[in-house]
Amino acid sequence: MPDRTARTPAPSADRPDLLRNVALVGAGGTGKTTLAEALAHTAGVLTRAGTVPDGTTTADWEEIEHRQQRSVQLALLPLPWRGHKVNLLDAPGYADFAGELQAALRAAEAALFVHSAADPELPRPVLELWRRCERTRLPRAVVLTHLNTARVRLDDVLRMLQDTLGTPDTVRPLHHVDLRDGRLHGLTDLLTGRTYGAPGDTPDPAAERARLVEALAGEDDTLLARYLDGEPLDLPALTAGLRREVLAGTLHPVLATAPTAPDRTGCDALLDLLADAFPSPADRTDDLPPADPDAPLTAQVVHTGEDPYLGRLSLLKVFAGTLRPDTAARLPDGTEEHLTAPHSPLGHQLRPVPHAVAGDLATVTKLTSARTGDTLTGADAPDAAALPPWPLPEALLPTAVRARSEADDDKLSQALGRLSAQDPALRVEQNPDTGQLVLWCTGEAHLAVTLDRLTARHGVRVDTVDYQVALRETFAAPAEGHGRHVKQSGGHGQYAICDLTVEPLPGGGFEFVDRVVGGTVPRHFVPSVEKGVRAQLARGLRGHPMTDVRVTLTDGRAHAVDSSDAAFQTAAALALKEAAEHGSVEVLEPVDEVRVLLPDEYQGAVLGDLSARRGHVLGTEVGGEGLSLVRAEVPELELARYPLDLRSLSHGTGRFTRRYLRHAPMPAHLAARHPDG
Ligand SMILES: Nc1nc2c(ncn2[C@@H]2O[C@H](COP(=O)(O)OP(=O)(O)O)[C@@H](O)[C@H]2O)c(=O)[nH]1
Ligand SMILES: [Mg+2]
Domain named Translation elongation factor EFG/EF2: which ranges (predicted)? Predict the structure, then answer.
């Protein structure tokens, strides 16, 4: 096993109030991973910052992340900063991985919204995320990147942020920013006057400072008055005010950074802000267990990775208690887990730490049962109550797969079991109707990662095959059939004759009726006929299981010696086949009720698209401010790629759910393409 232990000691915290857990969120490509790398360099954890194009960043450490140059999972970077431990949680921005983002928010006490200043607007999904954080009262700040690329006008960016996220009072910079000639020269802290980078000679930002002091003075009128009278600023009081406003969500600092510049301008200012004015786990006010290091252990698995040598890597957020080496813990169902030494991860490296106190995050290896999302409690905890799960994106993109060889097949189900234990967004289905193995993913990127992990982590190769829906068939009109199974040449003969009537029974499943008069079919062979009917219906007449029919046995003939159970079963099957030749067998396809929630402006496009999918729109309602809720019935066959199409039609803003309703007749020209189920 290669040595994955770094020479430098891992940062650690002895008290919850010294911790800062912050999630980096925002659209893909805004520079979250690059910023995390630059912050790690600034904090001295890395001697050199890697880059996303080179595939050398610490947070994107799975091979597929390097190849795609995009984060696909939550990564933790613990950094030491002025006596604090900052746990940066780099979350993927791409919609497919929204579950990883939610896991990061579960583990964090604050969110840094990373926005590329080159983008004139805040993407709608990001705005939605901001609103959701607002509802859960998660403190937020905005970090601007890409200031060095475009001809950015900071005033315009700031105005856009203030218009969309709050007001000039709530969304505001804490620094005077020297951005000239497409370069971030430096920052000057409006309160302390401390400079970051090398700001040029800028006029004293007295007006900006006065407005900030007014905002931070809060109820304390004398603070501002004294400043305006020319007294020096009461920095401790103002910093306390800043912290209070950030925690209350009434102030969202806006920070300018240049993470790719040689001096990583602004990264130190950001770390200072986190240490001075951001919440620690001790400030949590939600329903989760309070961060008491002396309480019994309560931790949640927020992410699970896999290492070729170390096996399963479980990232735990310790909510209460202190995680120490060799701790006995259990899952809510009573399963015991042995927690080995806590480790501090840094990309591929794991460094042992003496403990992880309440509020901290740590990686443990070799858990056997705990899945992502599971709660672990110390053996000394009175009852092990499960912490609530975090919201997950719906996995609505089905892909049918088949093992490439027998050797692959042997390993496939175990590998999928491991993957779904690690990734709660993945759903694996063995469809009983079609017999297909189906991977349900949140989108194509999630599917690509899942297939890649099957091969890279488990050595299993699969091929994707055409996805099938569970077709059935029925009789569209009544029909009669005569079944004659007579073989009497030599030896023991076979003799059975029966007449059947088949009628449609919409929504009624299957009924068998015996109307034989005069014992033309002896009573003890009637069950044989029913058995033969059931078997043939299960096989179907055009390759799909038949449903919603009433089959009536009307007449028949038997032979005293040659008739048998088997002969009547065969005759029944023949009678049904003949009925199918006379009557019209119709193919039924599954139809779902679909609910689409989307911004009003895309309603027309989405309605048009639903009709093109043979959908039947049931109605549209108001689904919230500026949102429509469209309800429709849509054949499942047409929904196979709907997650992708809805995403592009609605620019990533539409969501939908689906629920099986019933089977309904399939148009003949389509049914002809699915003759054999
Ligand atoms: N010029 C410039 N490029 C940046 C900056 N931040 C990130 N990048 C580049 O933008 C691309 C996407 O960055 P990445 O960190 O992967 O974004 P993420 O998806 O938010 O994690 C990469 O090629 C980075 O090198 C920045 O401030 N300026
Ligand atoms: Mg990233």
Answer: 468-584
State the CB neighbour count (10 A cutoff) for residue 449.
25
Cα(258)–Cα(495) distance, integer angstroms: 89
Main-chain dihedrals φ then ψ at residue 661, nearest 5 degrees: -105, -60
Residues with CB under 6 A from ligand 1: 28-34, 51-53, 70-71, 93, 114, 145-146, 148-149, 258-260
Q: How far apart are CA 258 and CA 268, in angstroms?
A: 11
First and final C-alpha spacing in the chain? 50
Q: Which two tokens stand for residue 167?
A: 């007001």
Task: Please tell me the distance between residue 28's alpha carbon and the centre of ligand 1 in angstroms.
Answer: 9
Report the C-alpha gap between 318 and 291 in whole angstroms: 8
Mind spelling out the 3-state secondary structure of 352-376?
ECCCEECCCEEEEECCCCCCCCCEE
pLDDT confidence of residue 95: 87
Q: Which of 30, 33, 34 to mutate to test the pocket of ligand 1 (most atoms within 8 A of CB)?
A: 34
Q: Which of 69 and 258 is assigned the larger pLDDT?
A: 258
pLDDT tens, position by position, 81-97? 999 999 999 999 888 99
pLDDT digits (tens, 9 = 90+) for 1-44: 333 234 567 888 899 999 999 999 999 999 999 999 999 999 98
| 639: its two tokens | 């929904």
**CA neighbours closer than 13 Å in the CB half-sphere of residue 412:** 20
If you take atom 14 of ligand 1, which residue's CA is the nearest one? Answer: 31
Radius of gyration, CA atoms only, the chain:
33
Ligand 1 pocket check: which of 42, 52, 270 to mutate, most ligand atoms within 8 Å of Cβ?
52
What dihedral angle (degrees, nearest 10) is formed by the CA atoms of 246, 100, 394, 64? 140
Return the higher-pLDDT residue of 201 and 20.
Answer: 20
Q: Identify which of 633, 630, 631, 643 has the alpha carbon closest to the alpha carbon of residue 664.
A: 633
Output the residue whose Cα is nearest ligand 1's atom 25.
52
Q: What is the pLDDT of residues 35-55, one digit of tens each?
A: 999 999 999 888 888 888 888
What domains appear along the chain, each with residue ranges and CATH number?
18-201+249-283 (3.40.50.300), 298-378 (2.40.30.10), 397-465 (3.30.70.870), 473-583 (3.30.230.10), 588-671 (3.30.70.240)
Quote the ligand 1 centre to 411 CA distance (angstroms): 38
**Residue 124: CB partners within 8 Å, gap ≥ 6?**
599, 651, 652, 653
Least confident of 29-33, 244-248, 309-313, 626-630: 309-313
